[in-house]
TrEMBL record:
<dbReference type="InterPro" id="IPR006685">
    <property type="entry name" value="MscS_channel_2nd"/>
</dbReference>
<feature type="signal peptide">
    <location>
        <begin position="1"/>
        <end position="19"/>
    </location>
</feature>
<keyword id="KW-1133">Transmembrane helix</keyword>
<keyword id="KW-0812">Transmembrane</keyword>
<dbReference type="GO" id="GO:0008381">
    <property type="term" value="F:mechanosensitive monoatomic ion channel activity"/>
</dbReference>
<feature type="domain" description="Mechanosensitive ion channel MscS">
    <location>
        <begin position="353"/>
        <end position="419"/>
    </location>
</feature>
<dbReference type="InterPro" id="IPR010920">
    <property type="entry name" value="LSM_dom_sf"/>
</dbReference>
<feature type="region of interest" description="Disordered">
    <location>
        <begin position="526"/>
        <end position="548"/>
    </location>
</feature>
<dbReference type="GO" id="GO:0016020">
    <property type="term" value="C:membrane"/>
</dbReference>
<dbReference type="Pfam" id="PF00924">
    <property type="entry name" value="MS_channel_2nd"/>
</dbReference>
<protein>
    <submittedName>
        <fullName>Mechanosensitive ion channel protein MscS</fullName>
    </submittedName>
</protein>
<keyword id="KW-0732">Signal</keyword>
<dbReference type="InterPro" id="IPR023408">
    <property type="entry name" value="MscS_beta-dom_sf"/>
</dbReference>
<keyword id="KW-0472">Membrane</keyword>
Amino acid sequence: MLRKLVFVLLLLVPSVGLAFNEGLGEPPPQVERQTPASSVAGFLEAAHSRDTVALPHFLSLSHLPPEQQRAEGERLGRRLMFVLDRTLWLDFSSISQEPTGGSPDTTTVTLGQVPLGRGMRDIRLRRAEGPDGAPVWLFSEKTVRSIDALFEEHGSPLVERLPAWLFLRPVWVLELWQWLGLGTLLVVALLASRVLEDIGRRLGERAAKLTKSGWDDQLLAASRGPVRYALVAVLCTAGSRVLMMPPPAQHALDLSARSLLLVSGAWFVLRFVRLSASFIEEKVVSGAGEDVGRARGLRTQLVVMRRIIEAATYVITASLLLLQFEGVRNVGVSLLASAGIAGLVIGLAAQKSISTLLAGIQLSITQPVRIGDTVIVENEWGWIEEITLTYVVVKVWDLRRLVVPMSHFLDKPFQNWSKVSPDILGTAEIYADYRTDVPALRAELSRVLNNEGRALWDGKVQGLQVTALSERTMTLRALVSAADAGKAFDLRCIVREKLIEYLGRQPHGLPVVRAEGLLPAEAVGSRTGPALPAAGDRNVVAPETRRE
């Protein structure tokens, strides 16, 4: 009786200078238990790394005989790790990092609650005093005593029979055995869903043969594909419970399964509507005979109704997907509330409008053009002034505005002069006489760029080359560079003006037209052919005609 009374007093009153966990001996150097946060982090690190020497030192084991504390501490520590990983998501920002636990009077810290039976069980740390008088935080004795009961409800004997290497160093919140199990579950779900779909399809085809209606055939055709992925979602979310995944991982898997179910349902509705519309159209056209007006009217009605249903399906599916996320739940509610009105308003233009909006989204992601880019569209040179979800406004060089549909930039080629960088090369071609001094003209180009064109030239590229020859002239091409297309255009104009001005001052700069002829008196020839003039009697006439 006295022993029990002393034990109760030890639980109610914080012990000072009393020894604890006598059977474990001195803790290894890596064990840090000075604060609640360091104690929890150290316990999880030791448990996941299978550090059997350090693991028992984080538990209060004084209620056990000293000779059993080592073995029981290892077993209970592993079980507590399984329970915490699968039932309690620890937020270290809310766990005290002070040795006193927040205040000098604090003796226990509650990490959270875990379901046990019909109630909840607190997971707590209790402060004790180490041999040197420093505070030491351990999982409380009451928590340690409830580990086996918690493990029986939330754990499985299977995890204790798996090799230890499957539990080393979890990736994200899942351990290696859970990743392997998740991959196996996905493969099994895919195979099983395929088999179940084939069995259901064969049974459905046999049942459809017993009826004369064609609607069951449309249902079977529309379900091929969506049913398989719906079965995958159901099998995955049901089989994942065996893996005992932590709450974040289980929530993510359930969210993915629900999303797949919604997408599969929308896929089935869209396919069924399309197949049903074709089925009705074929029946009416075959029964209408020569009544072409009736067939066209029905086709128009089917097209309108099909697009309304498709638009409503898109809106409802998007709303239900958004409702799963807390951050955008209000957006999903708004879309769901306006689904009927939106479907009626979109109507006939729903498909085109949606494709245009998708084209705008694609353009904003891939960015073949950006605001301010220099482009050539429809043989018009200008700048991108505005980009919307449906059209792009191009500001033409003469201040006109060219409105281009968004699909044009995805379906047709166009020139973007500033896709990578705005700097650009420009050319200026000049026709000159064969006797033109090209090196001197090249020096004049350098002078023009460093004087009159200094504000426009970026100093990167300059050159003058003979690019073509004709029977009368040669073509010179001046190559210059500028920071953008506008400066390049102005710089080319200056180069043309100054080089033509320089050639005009040269004696043989601008092109001339030459001709050779014989004097009339000397053009007398023999019968066998024209007589050749004697040396010195030949006169060359070279009139110079300036080209403008």
